[in-house]
Amino acid sequence: MTTGQRFIPSHFTRSGMSLIRIARELSDLQRDPFSTGPVSPASDDDPRHWVTRLNGPPNSPYANGVFAIDIQFLEDYPRIPPHMTFLTPVFHPNVSAQGDIRLAEFVWDQWCPAITIRMFLLSIQAMLSDPNLLEGCILNEKVAALLLKDKQRFEKEAREWTVMHAV
Question: Which residues in 55-69 are b (16+ Cβ under 10 Å) and which e?
Answer without folding.
Answer: bbbeebbbeebbbbb
